[in-house]
Amino acid sequence: MDKNLPPDFIEKIRDVVGAGGLIEDGEQMRSYLTDWRNAFRGKAALVVRPATTGEVAAVVRLCHAAEVPLVPQGGNTGLCGGSMPDDSGTQVVLSLTRMARIREVDPANATVTVEAGVVLQRLQEAAAEAGCLFPLSLGAEGSCTVGGNLATNAGGTAVLRYGNMRDLVLGLEVVLPDGTVWNGLRGLRKDNTGYDLKHLFIGSEGTLGVVTAAVLKLFPAVRSQATAWVALPSPQAALALIGSLRNLGGDRLTGFEMMSRQSVEFVLRHVAGCTDPFAQVHPWYGLIELGDTLPDAALGDVLETALGEAFEQGLVLDAVIATSEARVAALWHLREGISEAQNHEGPSLKHDISVPVGSIPAFIERADAALQGGFPGVRIVCYGHVGDGNLHYNVSKPVGADGASFKACAEAIMHTIYKVVAAFNGSISAEHGLGQSKHRAAALYKDAVELSLMKSIKRLLDPKGLMNPGKVFVP
Q: pTM value?
């Protein structure tokens, strides 16, 4: 392979990371050059796997001096191609998976300091071992990394109570594009000494620097839970039910997931071990979770009271309250299996959007009508976190339709959806980022002044444009 690298560059990198931290062989690089869905593929001159912040800084300095573009990569579980190199074969992939140390758990300060390559599930387990909770939870938690979560400002199923990744961060350690290390690992909840720089890097998808470590918030462990699966007549009923649950349970409402019947049908058809909790078919479903730090918080009583009132108001058509951990897992399996199940139905177009919570029913109605009017027969797989305004509004090809013909409509379908999102003053990316799949759309749907400010920050920190080029902004 023609790596188009300066003389002695590889030798200098090897001197920094050692032979075990460098991958040159094309076959060994393969897993770093395609995403988990096989939706994005790229080529790379090298894959570099540093083990310390010092090694990251040295690699970045070498790339900066030689003007070699760098693509930071974590668990490679993203959905927008943000951690994939382009197809030029000139970029270096910087994998942070060897930086997997939990540096400190501090229960007194309710913080944990971790490196970017720590897998989210391992972080959750470390918090639990200390009698605490790290609340970020999402389908890829067994393989996604903290660095990737920070790069995309991950959301997940507990945003309703605990917020996005941005809300869970107190401090960062970042290697800047010239190799300088900013040590902002301060576990402070109060620090009014100027600009809060960490927020520049959270959600920046590696375009402003390489996050190598973070100080994250911990919370009291949840010792009581109550989970229910409910049948709903409409999205409007879901919003009303969320209001009732909040009035009765306060911040003990940790999660509320809403799913269309089409979403659930795909899971029942394709995901082993899933069964319909109800004998009858319903148009919409909700998955509710309450949590409390008290071991005997009687959350079942709170849930039964709320659902009883909802039945009387016509907000709930049927309900099942889980009575065992196995039943809770089965209900969550129904929700978490949607993305996998949709893949079995042929090509699908995935859109991760957000609108103000109160606009969700109107958005769904208008977007559904626009799609069916312009693309008859498409199957809309709508599900999401609802309580924070986030919907995964996905589109599968019509039954019997040709996959290639459907893919040819991808851009038109995207603009049909995004125009409705814009009409409700929403966002075209709620939690997956822009990567390389949405950067052109962002140029159309984000405010021009906002984009200009973002580009100014990029030019200031990365004047050579070497950090994850082609992501977030149109090349």
A: 0.94
